[in-house]
Amino acid sequence: HPVADLHAKVLCCIEETDPTARMVALRLLDLIVTPASFADAVKKLMEFSKKSLCADEFHKTILRIGARDCYALVEDFAWYLLILADISRSLDSEHAGEVAEQFTDIIVRVAGVRPYAVQLALSLLDRDPSAASSATAADDEDINPSTASLEIAPSMLGACAWVVGEFHRDFEGEAEVCFPKAVKALIAAKSVREMEPAIQTLCIWSAFKVTLGAPEHAPGAAAELQALLLAHLPGFVTSTHPDVSERATLALHLTSGPGGAADPSSLALGGQLFAEPLLPVAAGTQKAMPVPAGLDLDVPFFAPEEAPVASFAPMRADPTDPYALAATYKDDLGFLAAQEAPHAAASTPSGTEHSSLFYLGGSKDRASVAEGQGTSGGPSGAAGAQAAAKLDPLEQMRQKLATARAGATATKYEVLREDVRAPAPAAAAPAAGAAAGGGGGGGP
Q1: Fewer CB within 10 A of the end CB, N or C, for the chain?
Q2: CA distance 422 to 412
Q3: Are 39 and 29 a contacting pair, CB within 8 Å?
């Protein structure tokens, strides 16, 4: 079997320390991989990426091979979505945007994988910050709890939020349970307001979509979802980011009735948004759309308002004056004192062995205790590993997929490989020409 031998040799060369040999091996793997060998090749690349300092090279190869010819090499799309979610755990990866794009593109094209994909997206969003941070970084004080709890790139968080909102009708479990869980993960978590404005906007609008779908798919939870929006959206309305505030204001206006109270009839009108199926659109279609006659995109809708000019501006010290530099930082010394007080309170030692600088032997004692719990205390170490595994959403979804596939035939997915394109602008030209010819060809 010369092809199998070549495939094995190429995989061995991928682990070479020589970057030139490794790059050549990756290119060869790109040429010889087949649908039958794709899964094994991806598993090897993922193993190498977790042991190497240059994980982006392996991730780039996986993404390039997987997306070839509209995912022609992928046979198990549920498994491939797990691979994409695993790659998204590299928070500093340069391919995070491409991972999120493939994640959403596959779910749009492959209808058969949507029930599993929506559950996977929700499991990545619905994380307990305190539990996850204690399981992954119990002794690390420098890790941000919100980052440790989410564990995936921000672009992937936005993709998961979009998937949950767009395909909420495909939840596998009971809708009355899944819908409130999704809305709470999207807007009730404190970590959402610490994300980028674009991610916050996606979370807000996805929660709004889930709520609009409640009257049809989860009528018993419609009132609870509407109450969640009315309780949490005002916090986003006051955001300093214009996009976040605008989207939250619109969602709040469409959800509430007169006077800001809950109005069940307002949710019934939103079902029309999901009447037509969502289709993949080819890149560049928006630019190819013809501009309607009479519309000038360069003319603003409203005349720009000029900023008011203060009649009496306060005199400030000259920054170049070396004798008045203190006055140019902040004129309000009381504001400075108020800002310094919380920092001083936070830096005050508590006098315990964990925080005091003068407690001798504290680090050694803690190290011995940790060593005893991790090595000699076998049951406690195993229990900690099991607890971490239970908190890992990807591990839970892998087990769920393995249980569903046990004793069952392989799932055959149907992939929508055609993209929606803009109508040809020349289609109206013959009709216009015929009309012009008919008018100029002479009257009766």
Answers
A1: C
A2: 31
A3: no
